[in-house]
Write a sequence for this structure.
């Protein structure tokens, strides 16, 4: 069965990730899974003492260093288990059915890919334990958006059930697929949608009209906006001016929006975000 998977760590974002994931699971009528990954770089499964080769015959010291690493990893593993249990209790107190708990050792992207067949939606935070602060994003955000085959919900700020969304529409084939997904999925059912296009051509505007009809036919009140200017600036300004509490974008396109979303400029999408961002697949 496909799950909504919430990726949590020891950061302050763990609670809001759980809350966003619980909302999505209810909307999708899907089971919820909580995933915690013990990062291989910070907690290697096998201690690497190659840099201590100069210690020569001081084998006792090498063994002590290895034992320290092993104890550190065990503590981190127990901390992760406690984090998962605390999240489960938080969800239970809110009436959420008991989630599946999973813990892995390695890289987050690898762990998520292994669960691809069990995933309907992936929920992550904007910041991890190593990237606190509003204008920072975690290292794994870009890796996951680029590397997974499922839609990704990036939780930002305290949870608030969305009452309206902004769809950044670029008329790419993948974006049209995204419109079909929004129209057919219960996740965003009947939410008012502002379909926003920046620097669109006549063909793009025709595509936006098609998208508006498709969404309206499936119960979404739609407002279409054609803007000019810098893509990032215009999208953020529009979202703030209309007080829209969810931004939806496609993972791939053939325009400035693609550059905005994928590659070295991914952080420009989320860095100043005040609301959750749903990246469609």
């Amino acid at each position: 069965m496909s799950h909504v998977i919430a990726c949590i760590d020891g950061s302050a974002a763990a609670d809001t990730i759980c809350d966003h994931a619980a909302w999505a699971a209810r909307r999708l009528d899907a089971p919820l899974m909580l995933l915690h990954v013990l990062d291989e770089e910070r907690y290697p499964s096998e201690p690497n003492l190659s840099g201590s080769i100069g210690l020569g015959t001081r084998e006792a010291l090498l063994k002590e260093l290895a034992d320290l690493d092993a104890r550190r990893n065990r503590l981190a593993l127990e901390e992760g288990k406690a984090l998962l249990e605390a999240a489960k209790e938080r969800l239970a107190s809110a009436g959420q059915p008991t989630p599946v708990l999973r813990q892995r050792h390695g890289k987050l992207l690898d762990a998520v890919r292994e669960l691809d067949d069990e995933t309907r939606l992936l929920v992550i935070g904007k910041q991890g334990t190593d990237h606190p602060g509003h204008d920072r994003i975690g290292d794994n955000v870009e890796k996951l958006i680029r590397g997974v085959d499922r839609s990704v919900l990036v939780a930002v700020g305290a949870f608030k059930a969305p009452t309206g969304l902004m769809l950044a529409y670029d008329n790419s084939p993948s974006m049209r697929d995204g419109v079909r997904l929004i129209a057919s999925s219960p996740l965003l059912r009947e939410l008012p949608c502002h379909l926003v296009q920046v620097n669109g051509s006549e063909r793009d505007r025709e595509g936006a009209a098609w998208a508006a009809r498709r969404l309206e036919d499936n119960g979404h009140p739609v407002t279409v906006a054609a803007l000019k200017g810098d893509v990032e600036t215009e999208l953020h300004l529009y979202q703030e001016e209309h007080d829209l509490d969810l931004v939806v974008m496609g993972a791939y396109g053939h325009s400035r929006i693609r550059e905005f979303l994928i590659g070295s400029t991914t952080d420009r999408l989320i860095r100043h975000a005040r609301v959750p961002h749903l990246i469609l697949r």
